Amino acid sequence: MSNTIWSENISSPIDSARFSDQTQAFETTRAVSFPSPTLGQLLKSVGDVSKEESGDETPIHHALDVDETSLIEPRALPFTLSFSNLTYSVKVRRKMSVSRSLSSNNRLGTASSPLPEPSPGGNATTRTKTLLNDISGEARDGEIMAVLGASGSGKSTLIDALANRISRGSLKGSITLNGEQLESKLLKVISAYVMQDDLLYPMLTVEETLMFSAEFRLPPSLSKSKKKSRVEALIDQLGLRNAAKTIIGDEGHRGVSGGERRRVSIGIDIIHDPILLFLDEPTSGLDSTSAFMVVKVLQRIAQSGSIVLMSIHQPSYRIIGLLDRMIFLSRGQTVYSGSPANIPTYFADFGHPIPENENRTEFALDLIRELEQSPGGTRRLVEFNTSWQKMRRSRRFDVASPSPGSTLKEAISASISRGKLVSGATNGSSPTSMVPTYANPFWVEMAVLAKRSFINSSRLPELMAMRFGTVMVTGFILATVFWHLDSSPRGIIERLGFLTFAMSTTYYTCADALPVFLQERYIFMRETAYNAYRRLSYCLSHALVSLPALVFLSFSFAMITFWPVGLAGGFSGFVFYFFTILASFWAGNSFVTFLSGVIPHVMLGYTIVVAILAYFLLFSGFFINRDRIPKYWIWFHYLSLVKYPYEAVLQNEFQDPAKCFVRGIQMFDNSPLASVPDAIKEKLLASMSSSLGVNITSSTCVTTGSDLLKQQGVTQLSKWGCLWVTAAWGFFFRILFYFALLLGSKNKRN
Ligand SMILES: Nc1ncnc2c1ncn2[C@@H]1O[C@H](COP(=O)(O)OP(=O)(O)OP(=O)(O)O)[C@@H](O)[C@H]1O
Ligand SMILES: [Mg+2]
Questions:
Q1: Which of 105, 340, 491, 552 has the CA that lies 20 to 30 A from 328?
Q2: Considering the entire predicted model, what is its pTM?
Q3: Using CA atoms, how far apart are residues 641 and 421, in angstroms rounded to an integer?
């Protein structure tokens, strides 16, 4: 019981020898040829964990005799992550009713919790809730530090704070790595964060998911086969061999089990061998063997020279054996901090000795819960912990020197030269410039993103089939309703109606782009938060990937409507018609994608999309001509995305100068005189001719195509001009989408 926290730290090379027999062979060879192994090297010696999983016997934690040589081997420079006096509060708004204020006063009086306290200077409805209260500690490479506590005690918050996921302004206290303040840019590159939820592409298999992660995170200098073997090793390491070819799955598709999914989530974040690894409850929802396996993998990562920090609920006895340090939280305060071995002494000193045969952490957590509910609260334990820590520290100084001894830059470059941080490294003067921000150039990222998205959508053919079906059904209805339109005055009105409807249909069918990004949004945020790829690459590949489908849909729609309706212009007219539809599909798709980047909710998104598209249609120029739109609304006419493709196809339709649309006798077609016999119409024409002084016979052309265009107010842009403007809108909204992602994916708590 006399071993202090410190002596445990020093013993980490010995700890690292706590491996199975199989690893032992590896360790001895390693001792001669390498310094302590990195994850990549350790992954080669896959064995005990997956064996333990497949076999029936309970995994045994082998103790290993270490010979002297492995103790004096050249060790990598140590990393120490220190955090001190971390305090984080949020403002909570609440309506103060009399009964509420009474009950909360009562609660304040009885509980020791410092949580809800009135903010100084704040009004009665705003209260400050302290989620983390003066938390200090230290984590070292080679070790797993676990944060424990009841639900709501602040575990996730502490992990978030350490992983730089809380904005600097709100978090008080300091976090240093080897004594240096951590820049967030550097932290992003050397660390990884595994969140509590699994955010994965449902239609990719386990192997593909890990492979894509490898392609993002590992540099192009590493060959494809090397990446592949790394993935294979990781699969074995995580005990995922049996599930390697199974899709991840979601609510609609049965895929891997929850525990397997959890392990995949961990796998994608450790593929590049980060120096700092943060995990929020990596073992939640796993059975005890799987949970043990996960922690075992984490131990291995730690031993490869990383700092592993995780929160954990109710660790089993075997898992506790793998943990090196623990922090127990209660309502945001530290109630114990130290190694698992010291828990019995600590609680004995506190006056609550742990009975024999009792699980230490369970006892501790139960006691903490009891104290929380008691009138005095955990205050006494918090104070006891502070004094206990002080006493330990004073004793510790007699034993060893506490300084890590190496600067951050030295430690990182030592790690890199040992093969860690596989994202590749350059020589730079500061730690930040030593490690590239992104592992790959952007075209590689784009290619990988495009490939992933193609695979994912090709496994969901019903989605594409639905889109195709919608477009074809609309096309079919339009084609049969407007079958072979003639060029009579009525035919012209029908043509106008058809063209407006066809152009707005292209926009409405684009609404399906909305859920596509919303579904990916959190995956995107998770991946970009730790620099898996650039946001720009995502935007570009997102646009590129959507294009083939749009081309296909445009072509089908153009084919099914152009000839059946009898549109003008022959083949060249068809080509222009096709391009206009494609441009409006593109503009609509970009517009909806942009909205999905701004509005994070599907239902809200649909409502807004449908409403805006309706306004676009209203102001397109079909329902009300430009010259009749009130001055104060004319700006919306120019914003209308439907206006441009509508005018483009209109010009395509009525551009032929030789074609006549209304002849003398047809002038009466849309008037009350329509039913008058032709002979009388001819007489009317004759009398009109004599009074006007112009000869109008029944076959004289009174309205040409260009007259029609003028009537419709289509006079400002040429048809190609309209086409380009439509396409430009598409690009414009893609740029806006990029900025929406840039600003909207901060992924930090305030
Ligand atoms: N924005 C916020 N406003 C008010 N209270 C908050 C806010 N965010 C978190 N909390 C509270 O902070 C406390 C700590 O939350 P945290 O997520 O860290 O708990 P936890 O220990 O991880 O719990 P669990 O084990 O259930 O995951 C909880 O009581 C939670 O309700
Ligand atoms: Mg949590």
A1: 105
A2: 0.79
A3: 48
